[in-house]
Amino acid sequence: MFSIPETNTSDNQSLTVDSSGSALFHGTIVKVCVLCLLLPIPVFAILGNLFIMAAAARFQSLWTPTNAFVVSLAVADFLVAVLVMPFSLVRSIDSWYFGDCFCRAHFLLDVTLCTSSIFNLGCIALERYIAICDPLHYPARMSPRRVAMLVLLCWVLPLVFSSICVSLGMYTESPTAVLNGSTKQDAQTCLATFQVPYGVATSVISFFIPMGFMLFAYGKIFMAAQKQARWIQAIEHRTQQLQMNQSPVRRNSARHVQAHVERFSLKKERKAVKTLGLIMGVFVVCWLPFFSLNMIHPLKGYSISSLVMEASMWLGYANSSLNPFLYVLFNKNYRHLFVAMLDCGILCRTLGLSINSSRFGRQTHTVVTLETISR
Predict the structure, then answer these.
(1) Residue 88 bridge partners (DSSP)
(2) 139 vs 251 pLDDT, higher one
(3) CA angle (41, 155, 138) in 5-degree steps
(4) How far apart are CA 83 and CA 109, in angstroms?
(5) Does residue 94 surpass a pLDDT of 90?
(6) How far is the C-alpha of 287 from the C-alpha of 317, rounded, in Å?
(7) Quick one: which of 120, 125, 291, 333 could link to 214 by a disulfide (CB 3.0–4.6 Å)?
(8) Is 17 helix (H, G, I), strand (E, B) or coil?
(9) How far apart are CA 305 and CA 319, in angstroms?
């Protein structure tokens, strides 16, 4: 999200266009290799999130509370890929060529959009938590109006937060690139240097609070899944007791049904664990290194390597490219739609055919099952 210099700066200078440091990478071959490594991140983010937005706009069956947050997440990740990543890519590989004003604008877009993406992930966890752990109150707590308010907050709060940081002197009014006492216009780098309070505040608000809530919500969902598994086991135990008074034919039939139920229950429980583990694992792996370094860096006198900071930033960007594939993978409606679009392909465009949206049923939240975790 932010690039931070290796050398310390004054307290009143937080965002600068600087040319005093050398480029991170030297040599054409090295830069091409780094480009090939980083370029797929914005490309996949654009394609994946564009699919989510197009599918939601095309099929009304996807207009559900869950998908409202998924679409909002897709919009945020798409904008990160379009408005932030390309310029960060140029800066990371070579230098900053876009001037002082856009350096500040890039900083604001970066903070706002990445934080909005994380907040939307938190709202998805909130919606799943209510749907599974409190289904009776779901219609009231996740009404269209409240969902719209939550989506709005996911965008307004990051914008307000980043604006407050700017108004409190997050960066200088007219940053310049100075080398040996003279201003230099080439080989610049857009740098964001946080003071200790800002570094801690941005990390806590943008990441650690949402991460803590997501761990709580998905932990509760996992416990609800385990509770349901124990409930199924209790029913199976009762079935075994009833089998003692049945005829041999009925007893064999009951055992066959019991074995099927046990396999089905075990399969669903494993799917729930895999879903929750993958969602949280990807989120934490992508963002934890950057936000941890973002707090540690000013405390250690800005001594962490710029290369390490840049790598952690791109690892966080990777979350925007993984989110659409992750949520499509575990969402039955999106998964069926994606397969249908692949099956249709050129034939649909040539013959003017369309995919029947009735194939994709609406999601319901009144019945709590392990399958609802991944919806």
Answers:
(1) none
(2) 139
(3) 105
(4) 8
(5) no
(6) 8
(7) 125
(8) strand
(9) 22
Q: What amino acid is encoded at 359 in this protein?
A: R
303 or 261, which is more confident: 303
Token duo for residue 185: 């216009």
Range in 110-114, 307-311, 342-346 with the lowest mean pLDDT: 342-346
Distance CA 130, CA 134 (A): 5
Helix runs in the chain, H state only:
28-38, 40-58, 65-79, 85-93, 99-133, 138-141, 144-167, 196-203, 209-243, 248-299, 306-329, 332-351
Annotate 64-100 with b (16+ C-beta within 10 A) or e (fewer): bbbbbbbbbbbbbbbbbbbebbebbbebbbbbbebeb
Q: Evaluate whether 71 touches 52 at the Cβ level (below 8 Å).
A: yes
Choice between 259 and 291, residue whose per-residue pLDDT is larger: 291
The Cα–Cα gap between 372 and 375 comes to: 5
pLDDT at 305: 86
From 363, 354, 315, select the one nearest 69 (Cα to Cα).
363
- The amino acid sitting at 140 is A
Q: Convert the pLDDT of each residue in 140-164 to its tens digit.
A: 999 999 999 999 999 999 999 888 8
- In three-state secondary structure terms, 236 is helix
Contact call for residues 223 and 249 (beta carbons, < 8 A): no
Residue of 101, 132, 289, 119 whose CA lies nearest to 222? 132
What integer best gives the mean pLDDT of the chain?
76
Helix, strand or coil for residue 26?
Answer: coil
The DSSP code sequence of 291-334 is HHHHHHHHHTTS-S-HHHHHHHHHHHHHHHHHHHHHHHHT-HHH
The amino acid that residue 363 corresponds to is Q
Distance from C-alpha of 313 to C-alpha of 262, rounded to nearest angstrom: 45
Q: Is the pTM of this model over 0.90?
A: no
What span, in angstroms and rounded, lies between the C-alpha atoms of 46 and 85?
10
Cα–Cα–Cα angle for 84, 87, 90, rounded to 5 degrees: 145
Dihedral, 308, 312, 314, 316 alpha carbons, nearest 10: -170
